[in-house]
Amino acid sequence: MTTENRQATAEQAPTDRPRVRLETVDARSDGQRLDNFLLRELGAQHDKQPRALVYRLIRKGQVRVNKKRAKPMQRLRDGDVVRIPPVRDLRGDPDTARPAARIPTGWLERVETLVRHEDEALLVVDKPAGLAAHAGSGFDFGLIELLRTARPDSDMLELAHRIDRETSGLIVVAKSRTTLLDLQEQFRPEGAAKKRYLALCHGHWRDAHQTITAPLRKDQGEGRAHRVVVDPRGGKFARTDFERLGASHRGPALSLMAATLHTGRTHQIRVGYTDLMVDGAPSPHQSDT
Questions:
Q1: Is 134 in contact with 142 (CB distance < 8 Å)?
Q2: Which of 151, 188, 208, 228 makes a 20 to 30 Å CA pair with 112?
Q3: CATH number for the domain including 256?
């Protein structure tokens, strides 16, 4: 090939190849976790990229914060510079992209009936048991994908917190970044929001009031669901106050419990109760916010 031909070929090459991006964190993203920042920037929250790709890029050190390696849970600050490596659009790659969620029509017709409150800043949605808060771990869609599909003209809809798939209850959804940060601050253990759950448990609870402080550790490998275990050495402190509201007098032995969370560990109520094993009972089989 002549020099002229090589030059002509180079000129015809596409110029829209992905390039390294340097994104400066602004006030709207101040305090946001790195993984959530990348999920938004790369479109993984909207199925434009597989979520596993984001965590792989962080683990391999291709994502940098102020030129240093970072962890997914690192909190970003206003003015931080995040290096995002070149990432091609994987939506059409059958080996890596998750197919677009097919949400049944019945869910789309039902979603607006789940809204209990709405104003300019947020939504309060009554999530039914069996519906995940978001897609992942084998589920193509969750509450947030359902809302985004039903409201395509919304500029932003983000979960301020989450509850387990088998738990029913109220979830707050933010309509702006400012509202999201305010809500997340309130949902922190030291924040103003209080979390109280009702749990129907197997067995009769002996004490009217009891506090469980089992250190919890979450194991999560890439591409598989997480598992939460009690780990006295490596676990994070978790506190749950239980109050017995009632107990069955006939039929199966059941206790209706109110659980107040002082920390926000994954599966905190279920795993803490399982570790206690009141009267040899298994974990709560259903929890309602």
A1: yes
A2: 188
A3: 3.30.2350.10
Quick check: is 96 in a domain? no
> What does the angle CA 79 – CA 87 – CA 63 come to, to the nearest 5 degrees?
40
Residue 57: CATH number of its domain? 3.10.290.10
Position 95 in a domain: no
Q: Residue 283: CB partners within 8 Å, gap ≥ 6?
A: 201, 270, 271, 273, 274
**Direct distance between the N- and C-terminal alpha carbons of the chain, in angstroms, rounded to an integer:** 70
61: containing domain: 16-84
One domain, residues 212 and 178: no
Do 57 and 38 touch, CB atoms closer than 8 A? yes
One domain, residues 279 and 202: yes
One digit per residue, the tens of pLDDT, for the chain of length 289 reads 554 454 444 444 444 556 788 888 877 677 788 988 888 777 654 445 567 788 889 999 999 999 999 999 899 988 899 999 887 644 444 334 444 567 888 999 999 999 999 999 999 999 999 998 887 666 788 999 899 999 999 888 989 988 888 889 999 999 988 898 899 888 877 778 888 899 888 888 888 999 999 899 877 654 455 678 888 888 889 999 999 999 999 999 999 999 998 887 878 888 877 776 544 444 443 333 3
Contacts of 240 by beta carbon, 8 Å cutoff, 6+ apart: 211, 212, 259, 260, 261, 262, 263, 268, 269, 272
Which residues have a catalytic role annotated? 164
Residue 276, H or E segment: helix 268-276
Whether residues 205 and 126 fall in one domain: no
| Beta strands at 167-174 and 158-159: parallel, antiparallel or unpaired | antiparallel
212 and 275 both lie in a single domain: yes
